[in-house]
Design goal:
The protein has 327 residues and is an alpha/beta fold. It has 10 helices and 12 strands. A 12-stranded mixed beta sheet has the order 7-8-9-6-5-4-3-2-1-10-11-12. Helix 1 links the parallel strand 1 and strand 2. Helix 1 crosses helix 9 and helix 3 packs parallel to helix 5. The longest helix is centred in the N-terminal third of the chain and has 13 residues. It is globular, with a radius of gyration of 19 Å. The chain starts with 12 loop residues before the first strand and ends with a helix. The model has no long low-confidence stretch (mean pLDDT 90). It binds S-adenosylmethionine. S-adenosylmethionine binds next to strand 3, strand 5 and helix 10.
Length: 327
């Protein structure tokens, strides 16, 4: 079965957040200058998250990205992933993590059937890393990256949110890191998800990132990379390392968007940057048929495109940190 939205996009990718808790406080994800604290709602039990995964898969979802908050801080995560991986249709299970707990969890995650990892790493300098993440430990993340490869994962994808004046000076260092480690690095444009004023002063467009790297390296556009999603990839100096850019602001990719999102508190979103949410909890109480019907309705009414642009920015009435939605 496949389900398409009203704009003929096939929706086959679910981003499922299992917790809004995180062991880091990245400044772009949980902004400290926000006027109010996010309202913390109870999160769904694993049984409900499993039912949502199962019913999504029955509607044609082929890939589930488990995210958070930090998914690895929720007790029982490995068993949950193993269960989702055991679903009949065999969805591809991938996971996004900050890597802090990966050293000890990489092997169990691999055994549970997780296919690939995305790891956030916003600085290669211990001090800057700690500032961006409010206390994160760079060497723990680097050890986690090594552990993932030792556990048999394909080279993890490294995600960097570029922030002017904070880590944009490290773009050449990240390119050098990609070249020596042979890991692929994706630079993500900072999104003012919480309606922050003054976001433009920190925002760095992807073309600037590529220009900086091209001063010292050869970048060759790559047609398509497995699991690339909205990223545009370039081979770095002939490969195998790649540089990717994700440009939700400067070059939105909504026409290719194939995903829906469910947050840990049971709110479904057709678009990361949409304020329209649907609370799935009442439907979970009604039964699996009701869950399937509402998921189809959410897919159908997925917005044509998001409303953030370089000129307009984005102004939400209320605000929800990315850590609560799942990025
Ligand atoms: N804790 C995990 C991690 O750190 O990767 C998963 C959750 S995090 C919310 C998922 C992704 O969202 C990360 O790659 C993060 O860099 C990205 N993200 C969060 N806030 C963002 C923002 N304001 N702009 C762009 N990307 C953001």
């Amino acid at each position: 079965m496949t389900v398409t939205d009203n704009y003929n996009r096939v929706i086959n990718y679910l981003r499922l957040s299992v917790t809004d808790r995180c062991n880091l406080r990245c400044k772009y994800c949980v902004p400290r200058n926000a006027l109010q604290d996010p309202v913390r709602r109870p999160i769904l039990p694993y049984e409900d998250l499993f039912r949502l995964a199962r019913e999504s898969v029955s509607l044609g979802i082929r890939k589930i990205r488990v995210t958070g908050g930090e998914p690895l801080v929720r007790p029982g995560i490995v068993e949950f992933l193993e269960r989702v991986n055991g679903l009949d249709a065999g969805p591809e299970i991938v996971l996004t993590t900050n890597g802090m707990l990966l050293k000890r969890m990489a092997a169990p995650l691999r055994q549970a059937g997780v296919k690939r990892l995305n790891i956030s790493l916003d600085s290669l300098r211990a001090e800057t890393f700690s500032v961006i993440t409010a206390g994160g430990n760079l060497s723990m993340v680097l050890a986690g990256i090594d552990a993932a490869q030792d556990a048999g994962f394909p080279p993890p994808q490294i995600n960097v949110v570029v922030l002017r004046g904070i880590n944009d000076g490290e773009i050449p260092a990240f390119a050098a890191f990609a070249a020596t480690s042979q890991l692929s690095i994706r630079f993500i444009e900072y999104m003012p998800i919480s309606g922050e004023t003054g976001w433009r002063s920190q925002y760095v467009p992807s073309h600037e990132v590529l220009e900086k790297i091209a001063r010292e390296h050869r970048l060759t556009p790559v047609e398509s990379v497995d699991g690339a999603g909205p990223a545009k990839y370039y081979e770095l100096d002939g490969g195998p390392a790649k540089i990717g850019v994700i440009s939700p602001i400067s070059e939105h990719f909504c026409a290719q968007c194939n995903r829906i999102r469910i947050s840990a508190d049971g709110l479904a979103r057709g678009c990361l940057l949409s304020e329209e949410t649907t609370d799935l909890k009442p439907f979970l109480k009604q039964g699996d048929k009701a869950v399937r019907e509402i998921l189809i309705a959410i897919i159908r009414r997925k917005p044509k495109r998001h409303g953030i642009s370089e000129s307009e920015g984005w102004h939400a009435d209320g605000w929800v940190p990315m850590s609560a939605i799942g990025g």
